[in-house]
Design goal:
GO terms for molecular function: carbohydrate binding. InterPro entries: ConA-like_dom_sf, Legume_lectin_dom, Leguminous_Lectin. Belongs to the leguminous lectin family. This protein is α+β, with helices and mostly antiparallel strands. It has two domains: 240 residues, Jelly Rolls (Sandwich), CATH 2.60.120; 56 residues, no CATH class. The chain is built from four helices and 20 strands. α1 runs antiparallel to α3. The radius of gyration is 39 Å and the shape is elongated. It starts with a helix and ends with a helix.
């Protein structure tokens, strides 16, 4: 009985204890039944993620990791080193095309903003203008020059952006050369150096200037919430362009202590354990206490009976207690 009680109690408290989790995944094929990826807008899986179909204009497609991703620990303020690799293809059918795709980190629950096609890349709109009203960091492969916010004189570029459509750091990138070519991208963050970097290369293009990298010093602890929505966004405008994500992996160094709230299962188990312990008290503890009380009363009764028996025997033999007069006592004590 004692062992059973201890087992149930330890099981219950184990459910309430915090646990650690770090995120690592690798996806080489995207299917509709994979619950790890959530789709919004035009995005659909068919082995690849089709963010935007080249046949449609002014559209947005999103593909994000379905769960929140921890990038720093709210208890220790410790940021995570992380690395993510992905491959993509851009389909350009003419000399006029747009607008590009982005890898982004945003607040939990972040969804596609309305009217966010074309140069807004599915992340902004006219309401929030060039800057975001919420924490947002993204790396853009921008294929169309928007004079309002893009680097002057550069038609297409790769940029690292902090809460803005205007890139905090950027480099020229010639999207025209890479239609249907597979691009391999690596995005990494060094938490100690606060260095967010991106590098890319192509499978078919051997031009050295098209194999490049970029970095930006940024403290993600100060910029983003501890948990983020992470994924890809692609957008087209009045000119058409196709965007596909072919593979994606992510590796994080951070073990975050997750303080779990009691779920339905633990609540039911807790209530059951409480009822069980009350029942144990009624069935085992109360009778045990009553038994011990009876034992104490019986022992006291035997002691009284023994003393009574001794006094009666002594009285019968004349050896028991006797009464003396005051005179006899005074004479015996010479008082």
């Amino acid at each position: 009985m004692k062992n059973s009680i201890m087992f149930l109690l330890s099981s219950f408290f184990f459910l309430l204890l915090p646990f650690t989790s770090s995120l690592n995944f690798s996806i080489s094929r995207f299917t509709l039944g994979d619950s790890r990826i959530a789709y919004q807008g035009d995005a659909t899986p068919n082995g690849e993620i089709v963010l935007n179909n080249i046949a449609f204009t002014c559209r947005v497609g999103w593909a994000t990791y379905a769960k929140r991703v921890a990038i720093w620990d709210s208890e220790t303020q410790k940021a995570s080193d992380f690395t993510t690799n992905f491959t993509f293809k851009i389909d350009i059918s003419s000399t006029s095309y747009g607008h590009g795709l982005a890898f982004f980190l945003g607040p939990p629950g972040f969804t596609v903003p309305p009217n966010s096609a074309s140069g807004f890349l599915g992340l902004f709109n006219e309401t929030n203008g060039h800057s975001s009203r919420f924490p947002l960091v993204h790396i853009e492969f921008d294929t169309f020059y928007n004079v309002e916010w893009d680097p002057y004189g550069i038609k297409s570029h790769v940029g690292i952006n902090n809460n803005s459509l205007a890139s905090s750091n950027f480099t020229s990138w010639n999207a025209t050369l890479h239609s249907q070519d597979i691009c391999h991208v690596q995005v990494s963050y060094n938490a100690v150096q606060r260095n967010l970097s991106v590098s890319w290369r192509y499978e078919e293009t051997s031009i050295p200037s098209e194999i490049s990298s970029l970095y930006y010093i940024i403290d993600l602890v100060q910029v983003l919430p501890a948990e983020v929505t992470m994924g890809f966004s692609g957008a087209t405008g009045s000119m058409m362009e196709g965007h596909k994500i072919l593979s994606w992996d992510f590796y994080s160094s951070l073990d975050v202590i997750e303080k779990t709230k009691p779920n339905r299962r633990s609540i039911i188990l807790g209530a059951s354990l409480s009822s069980f312990l009350v029942l144990v008290s009624l069935v085992v503890v109360v009778p045990l206490c009553l038994k011990r009380k009876k034992q104490r009363e019986a022992k006291a009764a035997r002691r009284r009976e023994h003393l009574t028996s001794i006094n009666e025997e002594d009285l019968e033999r004349g050896a028991g207690p006797r009464r003396f007069s005051y005179k006899d006592l005074a004479t015996a004590t010479n008082y």
